Structures are given as C-alpha cells and as structure tokens.
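Record type: ASSEMBLY
Status: queued
Input:
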Amino acid sequence: MNFYIETVGCQMNTLDSELAAAELINAGWTQVESRKDAQLAIFNTCSVREHAEEKIYSALGRLKHWKTQKPGSLIVVMGCMAQKDKELIFRRAPCVDVVVGPGQIDQLVALVERAAATNNPQIAVSLDRFQRRDDPKAMKESFRQYDPIRMAQTRPRVFQAMTRIMFGCNKFCSYCVVPSVRGPEQSRAPKDILREIRTLADQGAKEIVLLGQTVNSYRYVEGEKVTRLVDLLVEIDKIPEVKRVRFVSAYPTDMTDDLLQAVRDLRTSTPYLHVPAQHGANSMLQRMRRHYTVEQYKDLVERIYATIPGASITSDFIVGFSGETEEEFQQTVDLVRFARFKNSYIFKYSERPGNEASRKFPDDIPEEVKKRRNNELLAVQNQVSYQGNQQFLGKTVEILVEGPSKREMKSVAQEETLYEEGQVADQTVDTMGALAHVPNITTSLEEMTASAARVSGASTQAQTVQMTGRTPCDRIVVFNGSRDMAGSFRRIKISHVGPMFLAGDLTEE
Ligand code: 5AD
Ligand code: SF4
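Status: finished
Output:
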C-alpha cells in the first residue's frame, strides 16, 4: 500500500513528515511522490496563520473526489491544525479519516489500521494545555514523542538531517499559537539526542540542524548535571562524520556569550544564526510579549558580529500587529538596516483565536496597510541582502552542494502540491533555512537562478547542470556542475551576486 505526504509550514513539520513516513515504511507501507499513486493521503498542516488553515480546508474539500475515485483510500490530517481543531476537522472536512497531533506520530500506523478496519474516524491528540491544570504531568507527557525511527530514505538529501532537541514553547508571545498546539517546553535527554545524531551520521548525514522553537533555551537537568545547547554542540563536534551543525530558531535573550564563542570556535559550528526580532519598536515588542527591548536586540547583533567573524544573522518580522503606527513600523525598517540581516522572513499579522493578542488587542490594521508594509520591508531587506552579498564578489567560498537548482528540477518534474499554481510562494518550505514560513522566495529564486545561468553561461551538455549549495553562513550559491557533486564540499569563486544568491564557478583555489 502506498502513502503520499504533503507538508506545509516550518521545519518542525518537515521533520514530523519524515518521522511519520518512517513509521509507515516500518509497518510495510511505500512512500510515493504523487497522490494519484497513493491509497493514503496525509496532510501535515500549519496553524500559525489563518490563511494557511483556510487553504488546507479548501484542499480537503477538493479531495472528496480523489477519495470517491479510490475505494478504501484514507485521508489523514496531522500537524498543528490537527492539535488545534481536533474533532472540528471531521465536521468541517467529513472525508478525513484520521486526525493525529504532533505528539502522537508514533500512533499513526495504529490509527490508520483502525480507521481502515472499522470505517470509523480515529483521533489522537495531546491534552489541552490550558484545561488540564489539575494534572500538569499528564498534560506534559501527552506532548512528548521520543526516540523516533530515523530512515535515510525519508529525507530529500541523506547528507542533511534535522534532529529535534526540544519540544514545545514556554515564551507565550501574545500573537502566537505554538505554545498551545506544541505544548510546554521540554528538552530531550542529551543521550537520546546524541544517539539519534550518531544514527544520522551512520546514514550519511554531514550536516545536522538542531530544531527547537527556542532552541537556545535548551536545558536538561539530570541530578546535579545541567546540559545546555553549548554542551550539546561540544559533544556533537566530536562526531567525525558530522561536518556542519546549525540550530534554529534562537530566542534573543537566551543567546549567551559562551554560546556565541562556541559557534565561533567549534569545528562543526557554522556562523549562521536565526534570531527572530519580530519588531523594531519597544511598544510593539511589549505588546507582543517579547522579553527584550530593541536596544538589547541591537546589542546582541553587535555582540554576534564582534564575536563571530563572517557571521550572518536572519530574522522573522511581523508587520501590521495590533495598533502598529507608521512610526513604529519605520522602527522595524531601521532595525533591518541596522542589523544587516542576511535575510528576513516577513509575515502579515494574522489573529489566532485563544491567544493573548486575540483577547486583548484588536486586529485593527487594514489588510492593504499590512500588505504595503510587508512589501516595503521586503524591499528594504532585499537591498540590505544585496549589499551584504557584495562582499563575496571575487572571493572563494566553500559550499556543501545540495543538488540541482530549482530551475533544473522544474524542467525534470512538475511538483504535485496541495495548492494551485501561484499560491505556493508564501508557504514554501525552505528545508534548510530558518524555522519559518518562507515568503516570496520562489519567485526571486527563479529570477536569480536564471540570471546566474546567463552570467556563468549555462552549458547545453547533458551532464552539466545548474547546481546549488550553501556556504557555512547559509548563503545559496549557484554554479554549473554535475549531479554527482551533491553531498560533497566544493570551492566556488564568486563572480556574480543578487539579493538571494551568490553565483560563480568551481575552483581549485
Ligand atoms: N501572525 C503572523 N505571523 C506569525 N508568526 C507567529 N505567529 C504569527 C501570527 N499570528 C510568525 C513569527 C514567527 C514565525 C514562525 O511566524 O514571526 O517567528
Ligand atoms: Fe511562538 Fe516562537 Fe514566541 Fe514561542 S518564541 S511563542 S514559538 S513566536
């Protein structure tokens, strides 16, 4: 029997899809690349913004036809929307057979089998974070999912792998839905994490991405012994097969000096930090319940640049949050210029029911204003990114080659997606980028790869294809190479740059 998984949202979801696939393969299922060939269609969903949820519900509506054409086929909804909407999903989308929360992936196979055998909808989700104050231990436990099965074949690239080091979030930013759907912050035991990374390294992983909603708040206490992120980085550094390590997303106030020094000094650590600022005005940061001021954030930026040579920093921003004035918005623009971010993921505020902001602050910025601010900030960020990339002209960088560029891929196969053509841009999953929902990157990527190809004179030879890789500071590099280079480290002399890209040629230098 075949299954097909479609994933939207952040890297947590990309990883969860991989773990779900491993569970199913372990039980004898086969993963396929198209829903047409599948008997089981799985949607891994996102609740961070309302728009994403609406798109999933309308896609589920369209799936009714798929199901009637295929007797015995099943539909699963997993991810944050499963946890947030629970039984409501069966009511809004009656074709759904199984709803499974992010903390219950290990029950997926059993739920699917039971749904097939009984013809009844099945659901497994965590306890409600706010209803179960009487039994916090049971509530916490219900959000855990330990020691997942890892299989190389479930990853798009065997040499890049993600590992979750912590679950949940305790920061309670007022606009966010994550603390309720992903549960309380819980760090995994270092020995479990290291065992998992050992497995990944044995499977061929050279680059490891450590995942957590606030990954640098990682803290595991065992008797007298406290393990923090910096201690984990030191241990991972001892695994010879691992060449690069990065971690996303970092919370600004937990970015300690010893962590920055470790990023500078360790063999495997890369000078790339994703530290979402969210806003550039103190009044807004306060309403967003971020626990820092813009001055503290700027101080952090200076500490990063002073400590780590060649560091790149990326951020997330929300525009059009409740009450945001033009002046406050301009402070965000100023922060982008000040911090010289490599890139930023910019989101229009979307009110989410149940959180603090939805109770206290009206969603009062008109959509057109949100849109304008989004575009304005993006334009400034593009300028800043372009300036930042100029420094690489004429320099040689070392990259880990990822594979053929998107342009090459597109000419080979047309991806089947949940969304209609053209709507996908703001939900593209950047598998090795930030813990974010990458906006507008697809279009710019297309343009840039096209212009890079012109500059470096793309060959018509079948074996020469446009390839991409990444620098240690997470910049995308486009060059002409061959497919067999994927997974290797190469040196590229940069001859052309754009806001999203560096482009150049292979060199022995
Ligand atoms: N509206 C818009 N953007 C949001 N994010 C989180 N919650 C919301 C919301 N309600 C953004 C934040 C976060 C990123 C993953 O998504 O910038 O860092
Ligand atoms: Fe949401 Fe991140 Fe804030 Fe946690 S730290 S509440 S995941 S925005």
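Annotation: Residues 367-390 form the longest helix (24 residues).
Annotation: DSSP finds 17 helices and 21 strands in the chain.
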